[in-house]
């Protein structure tokens, strides 16, 4: 046998692409695999144990269909593509998410799917609830709010609100972010799985949560109703209202559901109640409705039975895991708190260190300034000492100058006193001279008047004598040899002598007056010269007094 024959023949395979809400995976499947084989492979890859909630969905001819577990993959009506694409989605929903979703991966997958349905408006949510849900989604993604890292614009690339809500209110992206951040800041300390669970707990109370809608008709001609299948039962809605059902059939009140081609029959548990029949547009839709009804009914009955060993183990593991996570979260929270306290203490120490360094720097600068000031003060002290010596020397010189000035002042005072005395004497002399001048002027006037009177009397006397001579001796001129005439001539000579003597006295008096006047003028000139000298001396003394005052 050849070596090649010993080799095991490799089975033929085909490729599939599994698309979850947040990831994609590719697998190689054997040609003989059934739907359950592929589904189990995906669940193992995801680490998922709560497999009963999920299924593999594909789209064929515009209709969403679930892969059947009991049939071969390639025998089903699947898209002819390579690789074949399937969506791994939740097919059935729990009644109470907090009690039924045990694994964290299950919870995370439900969170992502429900969040997508809300954003795609497959589940209606009020604007207020969408903001709250968005805050829990942000908490699950980013953790605790930190204003140092989560500044304005950190949610710009996240899709958190349905477009319907954004269109309904005229708010900017910054305003929506501010509203979401206000709620987000209050979720501090909530772990990711807890934030996702809080999201699902709010979402499960929405009217359209977990409901699969199908158009139906109460007769074969009209499609005027909607049939909804969820975890609680079957609901009948009007075509324009998906919130409030017109009629509901809970799983506990349904006795039987039958499907035949396009007709689906619901038989209530109460045999007296009316049997509800409806028609769908296609047989595939009827089969899909019937498949969803069976799966939801099985889960409904399963919830109300005693848990299997596997479920009990999973619940115990979930409790242990929650307790462990709780302790871990508490430990992390405590460590985080201690770390924050340590960081605050570190920041405080750094701040204190910086403060001390700043104080040390300031003290060093102050010391340098003090040293510089001390050196400057020493220089100033030396300069002051030199200035003090110089001032002492100047003071001594000033004292000597003061003494000299005092002596000079005394001398000046004495000289001033003498000068004043001389001035007073000069003034007295001047007054006397003035008086004497006035007196002499008056005497000269009197003398001039007397001289004038004497000359006038002389003229009158001469005239009178001539007149008398002419009257007494008319012929004297004719007889010059007459002796009586000689006697008269003698008398006349005597009169002439008297007159000549009188003229001589007047001339002498006039000369004396002229001489005294000249003497007076000479004395006046000398006195004026003396007065000028005294004034110059007094002016010089005043200048010396002023200079002495300035020196002092």
TrEMBL record:
Which residues does UniProt call coiled coil?
A: 311-464, 517-544
Provide the membrane topology annotation.
Answer: Peripheral membrane protein
Its keywords, alphabetically, are: Cell membrane, Cell projection, Coiled coil, Cytoplasm, Membrane, Nucleus, Phosphoprotein, Ubl conjugation
Q: What are the GO cellular component annotations?
A: cell projection; cytoplasm; nucleus; plasma membrane
PROSITE patterns in the record, alphabetically?
FERM_2, FERM_3
Primary residence = membrane
* Pfam (any one): FERM_N
Domain FERM per the UniProt entry, residue ranges: 14-304
Subcellular localization is given as: Cell membrane; Cell projection; Cytoplasm; Nucleus
Q: Which Gene3D superfamilies does this one have?
A: 1.20.5.450, 1.20.80.10, Phosphatidylinositol 3-kinase Catalytic Subunit, Chain A, domain 1, Pleckstrin-homology domain (PH domain)/Phosphotyrosine-binding domain (PTB)
Molecular function (Gene Ontology), one example: actin binding
PANTHER family (UniProt xref): MERLIN/MOESIN/EZRIN/RADIXIN (PTHR23281)
Q: What is this protein called?
A: Merlin
């Amino acid at each position: 046998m050849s070596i090649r024959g010993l080799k095991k023949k490799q089975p033929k395979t085909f490729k599939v692409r599994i698309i979850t809400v947040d990831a994609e995976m590719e697998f190689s499947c054997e040609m003989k695999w059934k739907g359950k084989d592929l589904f189990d492979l995906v669940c193992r890859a995801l680490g998922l144990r709560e497999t009963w909630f999920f299924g593999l969905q594909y789209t064929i001819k515009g209709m969403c269909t679930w892969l059947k577990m009991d049939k071969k993959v390639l025998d089903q009506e699947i898209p002819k593509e390579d690789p074949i694409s399937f969506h791994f989605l939740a097919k059935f929903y729990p009644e109470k998410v907090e009690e039924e979703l045990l694994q964290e991966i299950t919870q995370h997958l439900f969170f992502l799917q429900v969040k997508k349905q809300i954003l795609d408006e497959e589940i209606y949510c009020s604007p207020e609830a969408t903001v709250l849900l968005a805050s829990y989604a942000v908490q699950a993604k980013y953790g605790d709010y930190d204003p140092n890292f989560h500044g304005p614009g950190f949610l710009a690339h996240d899709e958190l609100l349905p477009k319907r809500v954004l269109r309904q209110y005229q708010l900017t992206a910054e305003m929506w972010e501010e509203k979401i951040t206000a709620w987000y800041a209050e979720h501090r300390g909530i772990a990711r799985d807890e934030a996702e669970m809080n999201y699902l707990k709010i979402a499960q109370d929405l009217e359209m949560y977990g409901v699969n809608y199908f158009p139906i008709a109460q007769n074969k001609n009209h499609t005027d109703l909607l049939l909804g299948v969820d975890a609680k039962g079957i609901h009948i809605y009007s075509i324009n209202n998906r919130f409030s059902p017109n009629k509901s059939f809970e799983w506990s009140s349904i006795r039987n559901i039958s499907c035949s081609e396009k007709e689906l029959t619901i038989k209530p548990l109460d045999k007296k109640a009316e049997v509800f029949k409806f028609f769908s547009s296609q047989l595939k839709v009827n089969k899909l409705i019937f498949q969803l009804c069976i799966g939801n009914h099985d889960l409904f009955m399963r919830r109300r039975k005693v848990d299997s060993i596997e479920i009990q183990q999973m619940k115990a593991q979930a409790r242990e895991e929650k307790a462990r996570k709780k302790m871990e979260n508490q430990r992390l929270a405590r460590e985080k708190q201690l770390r924050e306290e340590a960081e605050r203490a570190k920041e405080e120490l750094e701040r204190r260190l910086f403060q001390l360094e700043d104080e040390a720097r300031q003290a060093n600068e102050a010391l340098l300034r003090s040293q510089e000031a001390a050196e400057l003060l020493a220089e100033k002290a030396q300069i002051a000492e030199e200035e003090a010596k110089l001032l002492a020397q100047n003071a001594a010189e000033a004292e000597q100058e003061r003494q000299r000035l005092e002596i000079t002042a005394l001398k000046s005072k004495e000289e001033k006193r003498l000068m004043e005395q001389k001035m007073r004497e000069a003034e007295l002399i001047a007054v006397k001279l003035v008086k004497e001048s006035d007196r002499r002027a008056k005497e000269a006037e009197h003398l001039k008047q007397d001289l004038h009177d004497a000359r006038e009397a002389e003229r009158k006397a001469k005239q009178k004598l001539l007149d008398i001579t002419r009257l007494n001796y008319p012929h004297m001129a004719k007889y010059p040899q007459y002796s009586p005439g000689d006697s008269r001539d003698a008398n006349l000579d005597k009169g002439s002598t008297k007159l000549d003597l009188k003229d001589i006295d007047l001339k002498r008096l006039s000369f004396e007056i002229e001489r005294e006047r000249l003497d007076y003028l000479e004395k006046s000139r000398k006195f004026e010269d003396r007065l000028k000298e005294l004034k110059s001396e007094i002016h010089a003394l005043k200048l010396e007094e002023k200079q002495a005052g300035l020196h002092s």
